[in-house]
Amino acid sequence: MPTNTRPIIAVLGSTVSGGTASPALRSRLEAAADQWHLARRHGVLPVVVCLGGIGGEGTEPEAPVMASIMESLGVPRDMLIEEAYSRTTEENLLHLRAMITDPRFPQAWAGKPASLAPDPRVLAYGGDERIPVTLVTSRFHVPRTLLIARHIGFIPRGVGAPDPENRRCWAIMREAGALLLWGARTVRRSLQR
């Protein structure tokens, strides 16, 4: 089933605590808003999918806070989609694929809080079609995100937001471990088939 041809910018979440986005998340959102405004200047209106449930050290779903910040950065609410259930990069991308291959996309999600839109966790994983998408995340996170996205069936374009200086070393070590863990899970799943 072909997907809607509207361009998609998906911004991956990061920690939200007390309604406040972490510096890393704020940087990602600013980069995503820049991508949206650039597309708009060229006559294109992509939807922006804010991906993130309660992850890592967070205390509340990331997507609603992300959508609010995107609005404050000039992206209209009816261009924003909240996915507030994923906890990992892989879940971000699996839920994104499930939503955008659903025939109701983007109308069933655009401009609505996640609680009033279809739950991507219960949607069918959509087909074999390779789907182009712009993925916005922190620079250190781009390589692993693109690897997982290709594996899931996207034709991804990565946009790396600046990393907070004080967390760069930690981020690189975290990504190395996360890549090994994802690889081990992927091998285990293929052996179980």
Number of helices, where a helix is a run of at least 4 consecutive DSSP H or I residues: 5
Poorly predicted sequence stretches spanning 5 or more consecutive residues: none
Round the mean pLDDT to the nearest integer and report it. 88
| H/E element order | EEEHEHEHEHEH
Shape label: globular
Radius of gyration: 16 Å
Protein name: YdcF family protein
InterPro entries: Cell_Envelope_Assoc, DUF218, Rossmann-like_a/b/a_fold
Pfam family, one: DUF218
Short description:
The chain has helices spanning 23-41, 62-72, 89-100, 142-152, 168-192; strands spanning 8-12, 16-17, 20-21, 47-51, 80-83, 131-138, 154-161. With 193 residues, the chain is α/β, with parallel strands linked by helices. It has a single domain, classed as HUPs (Rossmann fold, 3-Layer(aba) Sandwich), CATH 3.40.50.620.
Features:
Rossmann fold; two-stranded antiparallel ribbon; 5 helices; 193 residues; 18% strand; 7 strands; alpha/beta; DUF218; YdcF family protein; 5-stranded parallel β-sheet; globular; Cell_Envelope_Assoc
Explain this structure to me?
Helices cover 40% and strands 18% of the residues. It has 193 residues and is of the alpha/beta class. It has one domain (8-167): 3-Layer(aba) Sandwich (Rossmann fold). Helix 3 (89-100) packs across helix 4.
